[in-house]
Design brief:
Layout lengths: L10 H10 L4 H14 L4 E3 H11 L6 H11 L6 E3 H12 L3 H12 L6 E3 H12 L4 H6 L7 H11 L7 E3 H10 L1 H7 L3 H9 L2
Antiparallel strand pairs: 1-2, 3-4
Length: 200
Amino acid sequence: MGNSKSGALSKEILEELQLNTKFSEEELSTWYQSFLRDCPSGRITQQQFQNIYSKFFPDADPKAYAQHVFRSFDSNLDGTLDFKEYIIALHMTTAGKTNQKLEWAFSLYDVDGNGTISKNEVLEIVLAIFKMISPEDVKLLPDDENTPEKRAEKIWKYFGKNDDDKLTEKEFIDGTLANNEILRLIQFEPQKVKEKKKNP
């Protein structure tokens, strides 16, 4: 990775990240220094990642969801994220193109990493999402999606799949691009739920 003595990001990684993200050299260098301050080893563990995630959801339990997000970005499966994996994660979840975000969402829902998604995997991720939703926000959800089971069922029906069918990455991306309801259901944005209730 970078030169640990000088704390500089290697030229190769810097160029690769600039090519594959929207971030500038200055932003990447600043974030790298901050990353090294917080993670002197140059790697972030799953526990550190969960702790960071918890700060964004102080009144919820994001542990399960954070584990799935971490897994989806730990590309070399070593149980840590290096700076490159961390920046790719940041880019994909905040500024990536729609197709890139959907590729990431597929890897998030593909819990066992076998290249397909089952209805049980959808339920597992939706259960993790629901742990981050406040009881007040759950009350604002429509009746047919106000429990993890109902929401998973609704997602699965939109894809036109039977209970024991599998969903390929292409089917997942094409189906989501063709139906904004699927996109809304596979994520959770509490502010949008509140706004929808105020302005039906």
